[in-house]
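Give me structure tokens for this 214-residue protein.
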Amino acid sequence: DLHESDLGALIEALPHDDRPRLVELLGRDFDFTALTEVDDAIREEILDELENETLAEGVKELDSDDAVAILEDLDAEDRAEVLEQLPANERIELARQLDYPEGSAGRLMQTDVIAAPPFWTVGQSIDFMRETGDLPETFYEIFVVDRDRRLLGAVFLDRLLRTKRPVRLDEILADDVQKVRATDDQADAARAFQRYNLVSAPVVDDEDRLVGVL
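Here you go.
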């Protein structure tokens, strides 16, 4: 029941040969997020020792950004084999994310976001979130998009909860949200977070369509 950061520290402290053994012994109880917390060289050594079936089972449970962090360390053949064992929707999503340049914001983003049309009301949005079982684990806003999924703005949860149920999202959205291009360099995205004190930022493609969140 260790936090993934503490489990990562434990993995780094283990002798080389014991690291993959720990992963195998824990089986389904091993949180693969811990592998994103260790040094890159150590992660690559562990991945080289694990069976692709084990990796596929672990990747299935990860957020897309953590899954990409692991998949991009595999060689092309192993990566294809792991992807092939994933459900079709996850496979397509991760393959699309891996198509972005290495070191880009698209590789770092999470693709699980909450998006809604501008004509939804506050009440509809709250009911949707209460009734939907696969919401992102952590989120701070609802992104408002048009029918082509182009980003119009965002409604932050504090604003949503302070607004009466009949009010439409397009009446309360912030249309000046700081967005990041999927092809932007990760360092540029990090500087934007620092400069504008961001907690999260939508990620868009070259046509301003919402593709994820940092």
